[in-house]
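[[Sequence with tokens]]
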Amino acid sequence: MTAGDTATPRALGGSGAVAWWTTRSDGDLRAVGLGGTPPPALPPRARLQRLRQVHGAAVVVVDAGVPEEDPAPDGDALVGRGSGDVLAVFTADCASVALGSTAGVQAAVHVGWRGLLAGVVEAAISAMAAMGADDVEAGLGPCIGPCCYEFTGGPLDQMAERYGEEVRGRTRTGTPALDLAAGVRLALSGAGARLVVDDARCTGCSADAWSHRVRGDDARQALFVWRPAG
């Protein structure tokens, strides 16, 4: 994808779920995360479900549908069933993961390094399994790459211990870095999910992504996950 391109929704394999990772060209979606008007490309009449993202592993299940006007709950993963809800998370450098299954259960997950280490990916898949999903397919959107993410100390060692040495990377200048996308892929595989969409372009390098770490952007891109009606 080149600068100036707007993104389009993608099917998550054969799960029946759809995922839309927006780009810089789609505008700043931060206001939507705070309760603003959803983009017109989303399904009409669907309830937009969002979180107050806290960089942890809490999962919020919206199986019955929570009214839009309710305050956004704390958490970093939304799990829902059926076609009545659009699940949304918002990022500038963190990873965003879409999950779907033929059981009619889907999820949107916000994954920063703290959430990865806390097990938010596995927690979301476990919550889906509790709702009958045993064939989870996943999509991974753009996030900060190791080229732009110098990262040292105990947390990197802990992630390497949990997921393997593949999470260690190097910046352009050769300093230690976290490969967040590699960690997410390993978490998905370890939890039994199949990665069917992998668009983990570096937000720091991409001209069509917001990046707080590299460019100081306050704006946010979004991941929307839903199941078309019918």
User: Anything to note?
Assistant: Helices lie at 30-33, 113-118, 120-130, 154-163, 180-190, 212-215.
